[in-house]
User: Which sequence fits this backbone?
């Protein structure tokens, strides 16, 4: 079995990577929402995103390995399973964005940090103390406050980002558990390859059966530009999140994922004219406070350990 050296935990760098992820991911979601509202099927958007990722990551691998793709990671099944989970999560989230305001979709998706905190304790045996639990629960409460004005009117579509959250949480667990079996680039390439294989089958099925929800359409020039934006930003943000999950405990990173709602609120306001109410502003403040609480706690603990 080929493995890499077990990554050394670097909590501060992991937190910074997650903050970068939350700053950029609203651009992906905004472009996806525009494509979905324009009538493009969710599997086609997801396929375009992963094709771009294959090109970018594949090129990086060839450059790093001097023209060779190298060896497949072993065991391979966790990488394939991770790819299936992210494919399903992306498809569900992208479908939900066609119906929901950005901030609402992000708020519902933010059951994920709470799932990650719980799963990291149950499956990874990470030490999750009262500070991390408190931050995760506070962030979840703030996110739900943001969603509360419209949560009753969105109906079944509210389940889509919630199911996506479960898929993403499972992917984070696999990334942390098998961090020593592949680099961040390897994780991303195998995920994209798995996604493209699965989505090709879905899109072919949509073409043959003429099912609107999964039937591809020929994109316009503007749609191609948006698909490229989705692919490039998603590749960068997922590299950040993958590396963060490899080098920092999942329960530490989880509360910082709530910061995404701030960017989603801004994107919704400036691009889609979704004016934030007092619930959004108060909930967003709680989310930021939860993230700052974890940052202060972890850096204080790290400083005290270093002093000893």
Assistant:
């Amino acid at each position: 079995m080929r493995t890499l050296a077990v990554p050394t935990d670097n909590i501060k760098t992991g937190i910074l990577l997650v903050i970068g992820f939350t700053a950029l991911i609203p651009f992906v979601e905004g472009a996806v929402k525009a494509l979905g509202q324009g009538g493009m099927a969710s599997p086609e958007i997801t396929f375009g995103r992963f094709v771009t990722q294959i090109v970018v990551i594949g090129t990086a691998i060839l450059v790093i390995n001097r023209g060779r793709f190298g060896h497949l990671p072993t065991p391979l099944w966790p990488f394939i399973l991770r790819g299936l989970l992210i494919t399903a999560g992306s498809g569900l989230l992208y479908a939900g964005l066609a119906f929901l305001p950005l901030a609402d979709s992000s708020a519902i998706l933010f059951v994920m940090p709470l799932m990650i905190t719980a799963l990291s304790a149950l499956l990874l045996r990470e030490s999750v103390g009262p500070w991390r639990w408190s931050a995760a629960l506070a962030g979840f409460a703030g996110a739900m406050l943001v969603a509360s004005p419209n949560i009753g009117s969105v109906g079944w579509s509210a389940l889509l980002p919630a199911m996506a959250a479960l898929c993403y949480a499972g992917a984070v667990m696999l990334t942390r558990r098998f961090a020593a079996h592949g680099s961040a680039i390897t994780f991303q390439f195998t995920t994209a390859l798995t996604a493209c294989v699965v989505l090709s089958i879905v899109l072919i099925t949509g073409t043959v059966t003429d099912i609107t929800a999964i039937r591809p359409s020929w994109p316009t020039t503007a749609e191609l530009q948006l698909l490229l934006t989705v692919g490039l930003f998603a590749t960068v943000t997922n590299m950040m999140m993958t590396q963060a999950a490899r080098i920092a405990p999942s329960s530490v990173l989880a509360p910082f994922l709530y910061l995404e709602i701030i960017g989603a609120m801004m994107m919704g306001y400036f691009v889609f004219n979704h004016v934030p109410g007092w619930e959004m502003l108060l909930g967003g403040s709680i989310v930021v406070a939860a993230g700052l609480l974890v940052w202060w706690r972890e850096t204080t603990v790290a400083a005290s350990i270093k002093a000893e």
